[in-house]
């Protein structure tokens, strides 16, 4: 049976401008590895924390919820402050984008870039993401179908309460978009669900940033930082961060 190595945080020290890179829900820091490497090569300090329960056996996800992952983001931001960085920008993918928006409402950031951000998510959809992740993980491990079916029961029987809290967190963040006044870039994949195109427009219209841009990428699905537009997205990020 295949033993999948757990993911790790990424910390690449560079100049005085630190980038906090936030991965998506049920994924891990590989979402940001190529981006972090490319931006570090441009001189930036890059830090991608790993949310609790992510990047390891899916059973770990059952022990945490959105408030824990948000606290991980708050702690990561504080880590950069403690390291002496006063110029901090945030790049967030999917739920990482939600966290970036939330952080921009509460802290002094230089700029943010958000990708594939949902303006709402049904609790059932969020639960299904965990179920799909768990099933795929166990399949990759090479477990037999009967064992997988037995091990999937806790995921299938997971109560929706934590997912309701998750949905409320997203909605509350979206209701405070007018508090964002720093430069923001909003990217979405044109091959992703139409919800994300709509969400990008919602964010664009409601933030109070004097410098804001919205851009769709024609070859991208949801995990934009890993897709076919990866190079073009990194190029856009570099241009946006340098202004």
TrEMBL record:
Single GO MF annotation: hydrolase activity
Enumerate the SUPFAM superfamilies for this protein.
alpha/beta-Hydrolases
* Superkingdom of this protein's organism: Bacteria
Q: Where is the Serine aminopeptidase S33 domain?
A: 17-224
Which UniProt keyword terms apply here? Hydrolase
Q: Has UniProt tagged this entry with the keyword Hydrolase? A: yes
Q: One Pfam family name from the record?
A: Hydrolase_4
Protein name in UniProt: Alpha/beta fold hydrolase
Q: Which organism is it from?
A: Lysinibacillus capsici
**From which lineage does this chain's organism come?**
Bacteria, Bacillati, Bacillota, Bacilli, Bacillales
């Amino acid at each position: 049976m295949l033993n999948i190595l757990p993911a790790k945080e990424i910390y690449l020290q560079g100049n005085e401008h630190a980038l906090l890179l936030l991965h998506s829900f049920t994924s891990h820091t590989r979402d940001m590895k190529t981006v972090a490497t490319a931006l570090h090569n441009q001189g930036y300090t890059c830090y991608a924390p790993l949310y609790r329960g992510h990047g390891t056996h899916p059973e770990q996800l059952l022990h945490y919820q959105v408030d824990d992952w948000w606290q991980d983001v708050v702690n990561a931001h504080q880590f950069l402050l403690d390291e002496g960085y006063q110029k901090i920008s945030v790049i967030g993918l999917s739920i990482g984008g939600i966290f970036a928006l939330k952080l921009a409402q509460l802290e002094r950031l230089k700029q943010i870039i958000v990708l594939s951000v949902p303006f709402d998510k049904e609790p059932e959809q969020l639960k299904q993401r965990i179920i799909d992740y768990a099933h795929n993980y166990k399949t990759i491990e090479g477990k037999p179908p009967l064992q997988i079916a037995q091990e999937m029961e806790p995921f299938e029987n997971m109560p929706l309460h934590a997912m309701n809290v998750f949905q409320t967190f997203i909605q509350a963040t979206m209701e405070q978009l007018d508090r964002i006044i720093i430069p923001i870039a909003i990217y979405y994949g044109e091959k992703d669900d139409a919800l994300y195109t709509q969400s990008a427009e919602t964010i664009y219209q409601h933030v109070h940033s004097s410098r804001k841009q919205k851009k769709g990428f024609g070859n991208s699905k949801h995990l934009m930082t890993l897709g076919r537009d990866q190079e073009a997205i990194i190029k856009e990020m570099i241009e946006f961060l340098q202004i």
